[in-house]
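User: Hey, my collaborator sent me this sequence without any context and asked if I could get a structure. I don't really work with proteins. Can you help?
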Amino acid sequence: MRLISYCLLSFIFLMGCTERQIRVHFENAAQYQARGQIDSAVAEYRTILSLNPNTSDAANALGILLAQQGQHSQAINYYHQALAQEPNRIEILFNLGTALVAAERPDSAVTVYQKIIALDPKNSEAHNSLGAAYAIGGQLDNALKNYQKALSLDAQNAGAYNNIGLLNAYQGDFQNAVSYYQKAIQYRPNFADAHNNLGSAYAEMEQFEKAITSFEQALVHNPNYPLVRNNLSIAKTLLTEKRHRQAAGEMRVRHIVVPSETEAQNLIAQLQTGTTFETLARQYSRDPSNRFGGDIGGFLPGTLMPEFE
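Assistant: No problem. I've predicted the 3D structure and written it out in structure-token form, which is a compact way to encode the shape of the chain:
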């Protein structure tokens, strides 16, 4: 009996030592992260998992750090390890979905976000993330439905407005894209991605002054954003070129191609009532330029057929 009691006490003592060790390693990892020593933090979390593979917090934290380093496949493995202990923990499911999207596995991400919605049907961000996964997989109608559902649950979901803007931009409707990006910024003024996307939409419409302002705002909120710095540089170059072309008398041309003069006259009547040329081009033009509101580019005097010029 004494032998059994002694063994039991030894087991309890060893278990207590392991728990204390794990706490120390968690504290060390937090300190390393605060100092930006990510590799050391990763090593601490790996040590925790070697002591107890069922420590879901360590597996999740390790997944986050690896994902930040672009090691998405490894991150996915650790998220699954964490979910093996807590299969319905929404925070980890979100992390897994994000990593799956980054790893170009949108179909798997869709399944994860659908599970989150099953657990929490009123989770606006889950619907927004599901929409993004659908969009990456080319299912644009499903993407839009989920973005709209996200906004019905939270009318201030800046991410959903931004994502609808991206859908509009992809379809060549930059004017509508601008309105959605502006809405995103209204609800999240420091949303650097939305400022960048707004700048890109303005640039597509050759409103380079506005584009430059938007890119500069993005950098205010995220100074270390290489994509925005590149976009800003390009916009400044294009603005200079545009001013040179304007000085040379360049004409900006949009057209709508329809099969009959009767249809053309009907469209002219709609223009006179205030419908925009771009809207009519997208709806009625038979030319591929309809995606861009009928825009076929800029031309200098003397470069077009005389009748057209």
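In plain terms: The first strand starts at residue 251 and ends at 254. You can pass these tokens on to your collaborator as they are.
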